[in-house]
Sequence to fold (94 residues):
Amino acid sequence: MNKEDLTRTISTLEKHLAERYEQLSIGHRTCFRLTDGSIIALDSISCFHAVVVEYAKDLSDANKNLFEDGDPFPIHQYSEDALLKSILAEIEAT
Fold:
């Protein structure tokens, strides 16, 4: 696994998230507004080859880059479908 794999995985996940949530661009980042008004973004943790969902309580916090990390999802432990389902489960549980 390398940085390109993480970038491709995040791009694929963002396409799926865009089908469910309003997509926003906040400071060069692709973000999504959840139904409760909170904002999420996907990021990578290269040293762990993992994707992480970052959460901001609202648009104001997102504009200030006040995101908190969720759990890391090591991409080598999931199929693409299982990774998407796990990430959606985490998002919906918050």
Notes: The longest strand covers residues 39-45. Residues 49 and 56 are 23 Å apart (CA to CA).
